[in-house]
Amino acid sequence: MIDKLAIIGVGLMGGSLARALRERNEVGEIVGYGRTIANLDEAIELNVIDHAETSIAAAVDGADMIVLAVPVGAMREVLDAAAPAIGSHAVVTDVGSVKQTVIDAARAALGPRFASFVPGHPIAGTEQSGARAARGNLYEDRRVILTPGPETDPTATGRVTAMWRAVGAEVVSMPAADHDRVLAASSHLPHALAYALVDMLVRLDDHRSIFECAGGGFRDFTRIAASDPVMWRDICLANREPLLALLEQYQENLRLLGEALERADGEWLRETFARAKRAREGLHGPGDGE
Amino acid sequence: MIDKLAIIGVGLMGGSLARALRERNEVGEIVGYGRTIANLDEAIELNVIDHAETSIAAAVDGADMIVLAVPVGAMREVLDAAAPAIGSHAVVTDVGSVKQTVIDAARAALGPRFASFVPGHPIAGTEQSGARAARGNLYEDRRVILTPGPETDPTATGRVTAMWRAVGAEVVSMPAADHDRVLAASSHLPHALAYALVDMLVRLDDHRSIFECAGGGFRDFTRIAASDPVMWRDICLANREPLLALLEQYQENLRLLGEALERADGEWLRETFARAKRAREGLHGPGDGE
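^ Those are the sequences you sent over. The predicted structure of the assembly is below.
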């Protein structure tokens, strides 16, 4: 049970956590902070938060659980503003898609209170954003990765784990560097590739026909290209080394694909496609299948 | 109304058309031909077809509508086998994802009967295959592209148009070369990119973690990598020139993306992602959104 929850950034992720904890009676008071008044007003109206504060310090004051749900590039600024007001019993966590840069920011901003910071990343979300997109079931049966380090207070990790389990998530733990490398592959590269494809197609002369003739495959493939550009700019910058390494490797794979097409090598294509199909079919979960 | 429908290739596409016409009482008898007895038996059991023939000639004999629903690479062989048995009142159409190579095959195989061939491509389907995947509503509100040429008999085009409209599809017409260029962009390139990504990831040391940490975005992005490898090998080979041109252009776009990441150019990333988001949001239709 959380007495006072501070949500810094009341968008899809932060708002859905607030909703989920409220629906399960796991929280007393919920305070929100955000950059835009309109979104905060909407969050209050939709009963996502109880009230809004106009400063981060006021929002975290007295909170026993502080959740940072802002784009990764805004974490340092938010942590600096929050640091002086974080209470001695408070635990701080985040939902950022990249962990090492957020950990570095937290270490620099929080000083001795860094032990109370539990880096986290729920593998959930949609291409939508804002408090209006918040849903109480967003985290049900989803995975939350925590990346506590040797300095992290195990009690803090325990409280963050309990919070996520309370909203139906499965909590796993791994080193931050592993998280960042794995997520570069499973999430950051696919987002970058989808953005690059849609951006290329919209600049073609045929773009009207191309979009008109788009089938379900194209819709699925490019859905993530409707994600928030600022959030994804931040993720790509924060995780650019693992992302660049994978992008290079992918470019090499496309070079091989192009060569196979050039020489009309049907066997290479069939084998590659079949290997991918087998791997993809091993992946089952929410939102999958017809 | 079709008296005798011959479905050559009773998979997702052919089977769904059979089901849809039957459900709407738009067809008398439905005969199926296919390579595997097990699939044909299943098609009969599921009432997708009335009976199966063990030769293409027997299947098309007496049919007034012949639908070729085999992988693009098998079209020539199928057309050659069908040609001598095609009746004088029969119309022939196909559901191939590439049009020019199928048209060339039909011209060579059908000789004087080429005027009765109406090249078609329904923009529908899932990553599933086989008669068991057939659904009577697959074509509802979907687009079917016909690419008749100057030699095509307008009556034949009219009969194929009426068939697709009867199952709820919207029929549009365009030159075959336009179709192939547009579909290379909206469908063939995305499939090739998804196959290449999944194939790359499954060969990484981290592949278990990567697949375990896959969220909804990854599932959407890679769903098409579970499509039939033979069908997609054929499509890639049949349409390799437009596909290669787009693949090259995409590689150039990835080179620019890599450079922007190298120099940590947040503005370039944000602008590119925002342009893609706007374009993607303009795209709405079946299977989209939460």
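Chain B has a mean pLDDT of 94. The radius of gyration of chain B is 21 Å.

Shout if you want it in another format.
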